[in-house]
Design brief:
It contains two helices and 51 strands. It has 720 residues and is mainly β.
Length: 720
C-alpha cells in the first residue's frame, strides 16, 4: 500500500465518477484551500446516519468552523440556524452558557427580537426568576413567594401616591391587589371617638366634641370671625345665657345699654351727632335753666337780634359781639346822666363802619378793609408838632414833608414826582429831584432816562437801557438779555440756555452753542458771498468737511486728504505732482431691506412704477423693463437692479452688493437670470429651447436675498 499520494501540479484534482460515467465528486486545490465538492449530489461527512451536511455544491456556505470551537459566518452577515421545527435543541455547559456576548438581541419564538431577550410564549421556571423590573399587571403570576425583599426595591421618592395605585397583600394566604383608595377607606373606617373620617377622607367632629381645654391660648383669632356681617359689633346681652351676638350699627348710630342688653340708636332730641363725632345742639334748646347761675359765663361769640342790657358793670369778656345791621353799639357816659358819648354802627357804604363822637382818640388803628377820611387832609404826628400831611390834590395824592415844603406827588395818571417844591404834574412816570443811589438792584420794566448820573453799587436790572454811552460796566447778566439795533436786528441771549442767537431783518440766522457755530435752520445761511469772499480758511489737525450729513466727507489726516462716500470729478485737467493712488471701491454685505446696496449706481431711464430689488433690462428706447431669460431681446446688453420706484430718482445698481426682493439660492451659488419675465435671479440655469443662460452674480445669503451683482457680458442660447 502506498504511504503517500502526491498529485502534481498543485492545481490537479481527484475526480470520482459513477457507473454511468458521470462525475460524482471532486477533490481539488484552490490556492491554499482544499475544496471537496460534488456537482451532482451531497458531500457527506460520516456514515450518512448523522446527517452532517456542509454546502450544497452550488451556493457558498460561508460558514467557518474555528479550531477554538467558534461557529460563525465569514463576515458576510449570514444567518446561522441551529435546529428546526422538528428538532429538539439542547444547549448545555458545565460552566456558563452565554448568548450574544458582544451585544445584540436574542429572540425565542421570533426571528426579529426587539429586546436583549424576547420570548414569544410562556416562560416556566422551577426556581427563581430574577430581574431588575417586571412589566405587566402580574395577573397570571402563581406561586408567588411569601417574602419580598423590600430594601431592594426603589424608593417612591417625591412623586406621591395616586388613589389608583395598587398594593400587594395576602388575603388569608391568597395574594391579591388593593388600591391605595381602598386602603385609605379601610383605615378611615377604624377612626372613632370625637372625630370620624368617612371614605374619601372627609373628617367630621362630633357635636360637643371640642372642649375648652382643647383650644390653646390665643388660638382663636379675629380671622375666625370673618363671617360677621358688615357694620356689626359682637356683644353679649345679659339675657343671652352667655352666647354673644352681632348687633348691626348703621350710619350715625351708637350702642346704648339698658342693663339687659344693647341697642343701636342714633342721638336725637336736643342734641345730635354725625358719623364724624360732631355733636350739635339744636336752636333754642338752652335756656336759663340750662345755664349755670352762680358763676360768670365767658362767651367766645354772642349774636343777638335784641338789646343786651345789664344793671351792673360787666366783668365778662367777649370773643365776638355781633350786632344786626339795623342796630348800634352805644358808649354811655359814666355819670348819672346816662347820656351817650358816641355810637358805632353800620355806615352808609357797604361793608363800612360809622363811628360818631365829639372827639375820637385812636392809638393803633388796624383795618383789613377801606378807611375813608372825610376831611381835607390826614395829619400824621402828635398835636402841636411838625406833622406829615396826606391830602388830595390835582386829581392825585400829595405827601408833604413835616420839616419843609417838599412833596411826593402821585397823579391819577400814575406819574410820580419826588423831592420838588412844586405840586404840578411832572409828566413822567418817575421824576426825582436829586441823585438816585442804590446799594442793591435798580430794576425797571421800561426806560430809565437821566440827565445826570445813575449810580448803583449793585446790579441795574432793566428790560431796556438806552444811552449814548455806557462806561464802567463790568458785566451785564440777564436771562432775558437781548442786545441790538432794534427788535429785528439783535443778538439774543434769551431764547434758550447755552445758546446765543443772531437775528437779522427779523429772521434768526445763526446760533452759537457750546461746541459749534451753525445756521439757525438747515441750508439757511451762506458762508461768504460772490462779492464778499473770505481770504483764508484755517482748520485744525483731523478736520472734516461734511457734505449733506455724511453723504460725502473730506477728511484731513497728517499729510493726506481723504474723500469718502463719493467720487472726485473734474471738468478740466487733474494734475498730480506726486504719486496718485487709486483704491477700488469697498463693498460690504448688505442688510435685510429690499434694494439695500453698495456699489455703482446710475440715474437714467425715466421709468417709474418699478419694484425695488428686481432685475431690469435697458431697452433700445432708453427705458427699463423686467429682465427675462426667455429671449435674447429681453436680457442682452445692460442689466441693473432697481433701487426704488423711479430709475431717475432712486437709481439703478449696475455692480455691487445688493439685497433682492427674493431668495435666489444657497450661499456661494452661481446665479443666472431667470425666465418668466419676473426680473429674478436663480441658481438653476435655464434649459428650455431658446432660453438664455447669462450669469448675473453669486449668492451671499440663503434666506435674505443678499447677492453680489455683476452681470456677465456674454451669454449662451439653449438649443434643445
Amino acid at each position: 500500500m502506498a504511504k503517500d499520494v502526491l498529485i502534481t501540479p498543485a492545481e490537479g484534482a481527484i475526480a470520482f465518477s459513477g457507473s454511468s460515467g458521470a462525475g460524482t465528486g471532486l477533490i481539488q486545490s484552490d490556492g491554499d484551500d482544499l475544496v471537496i465538492s460534488n456537482a451532482v449530489g451531497d458531500v457527506l461527512l460520516g456514515d450518512g446516519a448523522s446527517d452532517v451536511f456542509i454546502g450544497d455544491g452550488t451556493n457558498n456556505v460561508d460558514i467557518v468552523f474555528e479550531q477554538n470551537g467558534e461557529i460563525r459566518d465569514d463576515g458576510s452577515g449570514k444567518t446561522i440556524n441551529i435546529g428546526s421545527k422538528t428538532t429538539t435543541l439542547i444547549l448545555s455547559s458545565s460552566t456558563d452558557l452565554t448568548m450574544q456576548a458582544n451585544g445584540g438581541n436574542v429572540g425565542i419564538g421570533t426571528s426579529t427580537a426587539g429586546e436583549t431577550l424576547e420570548v414569544i410564549g410562556n416562560i416556566s421556571a422551577s426556581g427563581f426568576v430574577s430581574a431588575s423590573s417586571f412589566a405587566g399587571d402580574g395577573a397570571g403570576l402563581t406561586n408567588v413567594t411569601s417574602t419580598v425583599d423590600i430594601d431592594s426595591l426603589s424608593a417612591l421618592g417625591g412623586t406621591g401616591i395616586a388613589q389608583s395605585d395598587k398594593l400587594l397583600f395576602s388575603d388569608a394566604g391568597t395574594e391579591k391587589s388593593i388600591t391605595f383608595s381602598n386602603l385609605e377607606d379601610a383605615i378611615f373606617g377604624n377612626v372613632s371617638g370625637d372625630a370620624t373620617i368617612a371614605a374619601g377622607g372627609a373628617l367630621t367632629i362630633a357635636d360637643d366634641g371640642v372642649e375648652t381645654d382643647m383650644i390653646g391660648d390665643e388660638q382663636v383669632t379675629l380671622a375666625k370671625l370673618a363671617h360677621a356681617a358688615a357694620n356689626t359689633v359682637l356683644v353679649r346681652d345679659a339675657n343671652s345665657a352667655g352666647d354673644p351676638s352681632f348687633k348691626a350699627v348703621t350710619n350715625t348710630q351708637i350702642l346704648i345699654g339698658d342693663g339687659t342688653g344693647f341697642t343701636a340708636a342714633a342721638l336725637s332730641g336736643d342734641v345730635t351727632m354725625t358719623n364724624g363725632g360732631v355733636v350739635s345742639v339744636a336752636d333754642n334748646k338752652i335756656g336759663n335753666d340750662e345755664l349755670k347761675q352762680d358763676d360768670d359765663i365767658t362767651l367766645q361769640s354772642l349774636t343777638t337780634t335784641n338789646n343786651i342790657s345789664s344793671s351792673v358793670t360787666s366783668t365778662g369778656s367777649f370773643g365776638h359781639v355781633r350786632i344786626p345791621l339795623q342796630g348800634e353799639l352805644q358808649i354811655m357816659n359814666s355819670d348819672a346822666s346816662s347820656t351817650s358819648a358816641g355810637t358805632i354802627k353800620k355806615g352808609s357804604v357797604n361793608n363800612s363802619l360809622e363811628i360818631t363822637a365829639t372827639n375820637l382818640e385812636v392809638g393803633t388803628l388796624k383795618a383789613s378793609g377801606d378807611v375813608t377820611v372825610g376831611g381835607a387832609n390826614l395829619h400824621i404826628g402828635a398835636d402841636n408838632s411838625a406833622q406829615w400831611e396826606l391830602m388830595s390834590h390835582n386829581s392825585g395824592l400829595l405827601f408833604r414833608s413835616a420839616s419843609e415844603s417838599k412833596y411826593l406827588n402821585i397823579t391819577d395818571e400814575g406819574n410820580v414826582l419826588m423831592g420838588k417844591n412844586s405840586t404840578a404834574d411832572s409828566g413822567h412816570k418817575l421824576q426825582v429831584t436829586g441823585d438816585i443811589s442804590a446799594s442793591g438792584f435798580i430794576s425797571t420794566l421800561s426806560h430809565i432816562t437821566s440827565s445826570g448820573n445813575i449810580s448803583a453799587s449793585g446790579t441795574i436790572i432793566s428790560n431796556d437801557i438806552t444811552a449814548d454811552a455806557v462806561t464802567g460796566v463790568d458785566s451785564i447778566l440777564n436771562t432775558g438779555l437781548k442786545i441790538g439795533r432794534d427788535s429785528t436786528d439783535l443778538i439774543d441771549f434769551a431764547s434758550s440756555d447755552n445758546t446765543i442767537r443772531f437775528r437779522v431783518n427779523n429772521s434768526d440766522e445763526m446760533n452759537l452753542v457750546s461746541d459749534s457755530l451753525k445756521p439757525h435752520s438747515n441750508d439757511g445761511l451762506a458762508l461768504g458771498a460772490s462779492n464778499r469772499q473770505w481770504s483764508d480758511l484755517f482748520l485744525a489737525e483731523g478736520a472734516v468737511i461734511n457734505f449733506d450729513n455724511g453723504d460725502v466727507t473730506l477728511t484731513q489726516t497728517a499729510d493726506n486728504l481723504t474723500i469718502a462716500g463719493g467720487s472726485l470729478s473734474a471738468s478740466g485737467d487733474f494734475a498730480v505732482s506726486g504719486t496718485a493712488t487709486v483704491t477700488t471701491n469697498k463693498f460690504i454685505k448688505t442688510g435685510n431691506t429690499d434694494a439695500e446696496h453698495q456699489g455703482d449706481v446710475v440715474f437714467l431711464g425715466g421709468t417709474t412704477s418699478m419694484d425695488a430689488g428686481k432685475i431690469y433690462h435697458y431697452k433700445s428706447d432708453g427705458t427699463w423693463e423686467l429682465a427675462d431669460a426667455d429671449a435674447v431681446a429681453n436680457c442682452d446688453g445692460l442689466l441693473a437692479v432697481a433701487l426704488g420706484a423711479a430709475s431717475d430718482t432712486n437709481g439703478m445698481l449696475l455692480r455691487g452688493t445688493v439685497t433682492l426682493d427674493h431668495d435666489p439660492g444657497a450661499v456661494g451659488d452661481v446665479l443666472f437670470l431667470a425666465t418668466g419675465g419676473t426680473g429674478q435671479a436663480t441658481a438653476t440655469a435655464p434649459s428650455g429651447n431658446t432660453d438664455i443662460v447669462r450669469v448675473v452674480g453669486y449668492c451671499l445669503d440663503a434666506s435674505n436675498g443678499q447677492i453680489w451683482f455683476n452681470p456677465d457680458n456674454t451669454f449662451v442660447e439653449v438649443s434643445a
